[in-house]
Amino acid sequence: MSSNHKAIALLTAAWLLLLAARCGRDMPPEQLVEVHCTRCHTLAPIEVARKTVEEWEVTVYRMIRRGARLDEEEARAVIEYLGEAYGAEGPWEHP
Fold first, then answer.
1. CATH of span 27-85
2. 53-65 vs 72-85: helix crossing angle, rounded to 10
3. Quick one: the chain helix, strand, coil %, rounded to 5?
4. C-alpha distance from residue 68 to each of 28, 33, 45 (Å)
5. What is the pLDDT of residues 56-78, one digit of tens each?
6. How far apart are CA 51 and CA 43, in angstroms?
7. Residue 90: its pLDDT value, please?
8. Per-domain residue ranges for the chain?
């Protein structure tokens, strides 16, 4: 493979990685939960849990340590969403 082909392949790969990383940032937090959390479990544990924002923060970062792929901005959005939709304060309605 010539050096020009290698350079083009490298630039294309870098562009695709950047594009893939940006795609998740455009998702609303409820979609982030659906896409990322359901890779390992159903939505059921989330839907029945009633936690404070602080408790959701602990849970989300524990899931990130276990392999959930959320960047800091996405994690904050998910924590805020879970705190509102599935918070410790009731009454609740399914969002």
1. 1.10.760.10
2. 140
3. 70, 0, 30
4. 17, 10, 16
5. 999 999 999 999 999 999 999 99
6. 15
7. 62
8. 27-85
Token pair for 85: 């939709």
Alpha helices by DSSP H, listed for 24-71, are 29-32, 44-48, 53-65
**Partner residues linked to 87 by β-bridges:** 51
Tokens of 21: 């990383």
pLDDT digits (tens, 9 = 90+) for 4-56: 767 676 656 655 555 555 554 589 999 999 999 999 999 999 999 999 999 99
Instruction: Give the CA angle between residues 14, 19, 25 to the nearest 5°.
Output: 135
Structure-token pair, residue 86: 């599935």
d(Cα 13, Cα 40) in Å, to the nearest integer? 28
| Cβ atoms of 50 and 88 closer than 8 Å | yes
